[in-house]
Specification:
Strand content: 25-35%
Largest sheet: 4 strands, mixed
Order of helices and strands: HEEHEEEEHEEEEHEEEEEEEEHHHHH
Strand order of the largest sheet: 2-1-4-3
Length: about 400
């Protein structure tokens, strides 16, 4: 039994030594892993697009640290130190993401890619520093709006007869005029649109426009209305109503340059007198019907009586009036142009007294039936109104 116990002792002793060895291996591994962990762990300052923070970082390179904190980088982004660089404890990593920005320089617009954070940084990247005017403060962060930049330039402004040379960073013509001390009137004209870009060498002409209130009276022409008249022979026209022009007054603002009107705005308009339409009666009766119409005496074409019928109808009188005229002048002269009363001196178809009165119509008054008839009809109309009224007077007084 003792041997057996002795024999068993070594076995128990080796087992204890194996356990200790295993624990040593584990301890070595733990110690080794802790050393590696402590090497990878460090404190880093991250500056991402101006947002600065201090973080606990694990990784060997800049790229490892950025990936561990969810900071994505792409082509065109600015990363310092470079993504593959080793990161030391207390290191600073700067990231500037690239972005598109619309920039307008003196009216010329373009899109650039930049990692700048402020207007001032953009100016530095573009090489536009001295004397440049920007649409936003230089220290302002970049937004989504168009960044407008205006470089120094020389302009010429001509106003009120004076040419002014202007050195300016104004971005528009409107701003340049303000700098030049030019105050625009409501209707003044500028040779260049006010919101146009101010560019080097530009000449701007200001034209002063005066506004004057005026009143103007104008003629309103009458219209001619043509009406068919079956009592007149075809081809004959008689003015039934004499036309008359109307008048119209207009009040307006006139826009003048050096006294010359270039436009106007009507303020009010009123009709002083209305135009009266001229009515022209147009004959539609055939000549052959007029010669044979009921109640009208037969008329032989080409005779003085035919001329009398034509001129009577032309004055707007009907065939009944010609019948009276025919009776009157048949009694007076028998429609003879050479009829002459030696005792009184009355002459011609209408027996004008004296005959020379008919010279007011024509110099051939002594022999021309048309001249005599024209004068005679005018005399009847002026004195009696119509041939029938003249005939009635003749029958009552034996003269007319």
């Amino acid at each position: 039994m003792r041997l057996a116990s002795l024999a068993n002792r070594p076995t128990g002793r080796w087992t204890g030594r194996g356990r200790v060895a295993a624990q040593a291996v584990v301890l070595a591994l733990v110690v080794g892993g802790t050393s590696a962990f402590s090497v990878l762990h460090k404190t880093v300052t991250l500056d991402v697009d101006g947002e600065v923070s201090t973080v606990a970082a694990y990784g060997r390179t800049v790229e490892d640290v950025l990936a561990g904190h969810g900071v994505d980088i792409a082509e065109g982004d600015l990363v310092a130190p470079a993504p593959g660089s080793l990161v030391a404890d207390d290191a600073e990593i700067v990231v500037r993401h690239a972005r598109e920005l619309v920039v307008e320089v003196d009216g010329e617009r373009s899109t650039i890619v930049t990692t700048a954070l402020t207007v001032d940084e953009v100016l530095t990247d573009l090489g536009l520093r001295a004397g440049v005017r920007a649409s936003a403060s230089r220290s302002a962060p970049l937004g989504r709006d168009v960044l407008r930049l205006s470089t120094p330039k020389d302009l010429t402004v001509v106003a009120d007869g004076v040419a002014t040379e202007l050195s300016t960073t104004a971005s528009t013509v409107r701003e340049a005029l303000v700098e030049a001390g030019v105050v625009l009137g409501e209707h003044d004209q500028v040779s260049v649109p006010l919101d146009a870009a101010a560019v080097d060498g530009l000449a701007v002409l200001v034209t002063r426009v005066a506004s004057v209130t005026r009143t103007e009276t104008s003629v309103q022409p009458f219209e001619t209305v043509r009406q068919e008249d079956p009592s007149l022979l075809v081809g004959k026209e008689v003015v039934g109503v004499q036309g008359a022009d109307g008048t119209r007054v207009v009040t307006f603002v006139a826009y003048e340059v050096n006294g010359v009107e270039i436009g106007r705005t009507v303020l009010a308009a009123a009709e002083l007198t209305a135009p009266v339409n001229q009515v022209v009666r147009v004959g539609t009766k055939p000549v052959e019907e007029a010669a044979t119409a009921p109640g009208a005496p037969p008329v032989e074409p080409g005779t003085a009586r035919a001329i009398g019928l034509e001129l009577t109808l032309a004055r707007g009188w009907g065939e009944d009036q010609f019948a009276c005229l025919d009776a009157l002048w048949t009694k007076e002269s028998g429609w003879r142009a050479d009829a002459h009363n030696r005792s009184s001196g009355a002459h011609g178809i209408p027996q004008a007294l004296p005959g020379s009165k008919m010279a007011s119509v024509g110099a051939d008054w002594a022999t021309n039936p048309a001249t005599q008839i024209t004068w005679g009809l005018g005399y009847i109309e002026a004195r009696y109104g119509t041939p029938c009224d003249a005939w009635a007077h003749s029958k009552a007084k034996n003269w007319y």
